[in-house]
């Protein structure tokens, strides 16, 4: 089968979060199931710079959402791509969605991406005619709407929600510029509470909806996690599938990782000490036997970073050290930096994101804290499993699906891979930290948890098989 994926970012070319990791790794995993994937991405500056050889122009327009544009067929970083080359929309400095805030024309930029996806679904390009279209998150969701209202060719669609909190909501005044028929401005089209909802349109029209863990699929059917879309999702619950994300186990492999001072495996855990020493040096932490708890995250309310700031002093009082890497809410950045200033040698903070440093932290720290209020899947806990950095997670979404809590029964059976806690309160969080500290004081128990986590299958193998099965089912129904 030929699969057209549509996404706003893809690793290793352009990345702001886990979406890119998924869209970058899934094509390779699907190849083993006979699926040929080409991904349509915007022609941001890093994307255009990464293209190999001379791209083939498969479609062009003198006027396309405000300027000339074309779709290129090209390869980059081992990926087969279609690229929407529209300089007036994507040739900009800074982050993909805005530099210090959202670009005001994001509705136009990602409507254009959706229209380009629909054109490829209808006509193909470069000898590639899709059998199915897979759209990722709100930035790609209008692909489904344009296919639904404009295309004559019947092609099944999959809409994947990576985080329902980001929906692409815009005022109704943009509707005339979307180029959709009047019938689309309705409750079963793109209309959403009097405005336009890009993700809502994708959820409404897709042949199937997937999200990135089974528990999150259940959660988004409730008002608490449904973000105003739970009614629509419940109406389509028969088409909803929760498929947990995997990670690229070639990129994240502690036995071959070039970012590490010392590579290691389940039988050579002692080598992690060299990585721990490197973390201590990078973050200005005391070189002692105390465990290092790490955070590698966006510093936001959703990620529970306000809770971390609230309990930081008490975590240090328990005897742990903290190494924190991330950026986000300026008040939270300030609170964590203030904590580091209060506890020199015990807390270190680096504001920003650094991919090599994140590998080192997973390989040298003892446990990774993920106190998210909601977490569709989460990838940092999967990296932690792979690297023997024991996850400590809130019991929600994909965190609940991927971590086996170190309760007495799991410890006795030797199957524990981390620590879960609920509810999301300071007391519950600290109780989990105390459990971590108790287990860490028993080296054989701790090593068993590490090794069990490192043996967990966090690859794309099983999840890719589920996507392939879903694709086959949808294609057979056409």
Automatic annotation (TrEMBL):
Gene Ontology MF terms: alpha-1,4-glucan glucosyltransferase (ADP-glucose donor) activity; alpha-1,4-glucan glucosyltransferase (UDP-glucose donor) activity
Catalytic activity line of the entry: [(1->4)-alpha-D-glucosyl](n) + ADP-alpha-D-glucose = [(1->4)-alpha-D-glucosyl](n+1) + ADP + H(+)
Pathway where it operates: Glycan biosynthesis; glycogen biosynthesis
Cell inner membrane as UniProt keyword: no
CC terms in the record's Gene Ontology section: cytosol
Domain (Starch synthase catalytic) ranges: 2-234
Segments forming domain Glycosyl transferase family: 288-444
UniProt record, GO biological process: glycogen biosynthetic process
Protein residues bound to ADP-alpha-D-glucose: 15
Pfam families xref list: Glyco_transf_5, Glycos_transf_1
Family affiliation: Belongs to the glycosyltransferase 1 family. Bacterial/plant glycogen synthase subfamily.
Record function comment: Synthesizes alpha-1,4-glucan chains using ADP-glucose.
HAMAP family documented for this protein: Glycogen_synth (MF_00484)
Entries under NCBIfam families matching the protein: glgA, PRK00654.1-2
The protein's name: Glycogen synthase
Gene: glgA
